[in-house]
Amino acid sequence: MPSTTHSTPDTAPRHAGRTPTAEERSELERRALVAYHQARKGSPDEAPAAPVQARWASKAKTDRATGERHALHFVVIHAGVDVLAVYRVRPVKDYFMLRRLVRWPGDLVRLKVQDTA
């Protein structure tokens, strides 16, 4: 019978506390815009009326097990007040990874309508 070795459980925090710098934020916004346009390529959908832009968004989340609060970061792709896509920013070692979300957090997608009066 083969012997099994037990490894110690990974106790590293799931969400690293590193916040992207302004330069990293602009690079992540650029990467999210490129990913959005590549995913949309060949799509028969009509083009949005307003220019497609990216904005940075963050929100705090409380870990249920430990009660600690940590920040979650997102890039929101929008055209005017219409949200087109949301990408989650996740720290991975020395860089940040983008992941497109299927279900968007409701409090992130509420954009303020610009007053034109």
Could you explain how this protein is built, in words?
- There is one protein chain.
- This protein has 117 residues and is of the alpha+beta class.
- It has a domain of 58 residues.
- It contains 1 helix and 4 strands.
- Strands 1-2-3-4 form a 4-stranded antiparallel sheet, with helices on one face.
- It is globular.
- The protein starts with 21 loop residues before the first helix and ends in a 17-residue tail after the last strand.
- The relative contact order is 0.18.
- The C terminus is likely disordered.
How many distinct helices?
A: 1
- Fraction of residues in H or I helices: 10-25%
Largest sheet: 4 strands, antiparallel
| Head-to-tail CA distance between termini | 79 Å
Structure summary, number of beta strands: 4
Low-confidence stretches: 111-117
Reading the helices and strands in chain order gives HEEEE
What is the 3D form? Answer: globular
What is the structural class? alpha+beta
The neighbouring-strand order within the major sheet is 1-2-3-4
**Gyration radius, to the nearest Å?**
18 Å
Strand residue content: 25-35%
Global mean pLDDT: 79
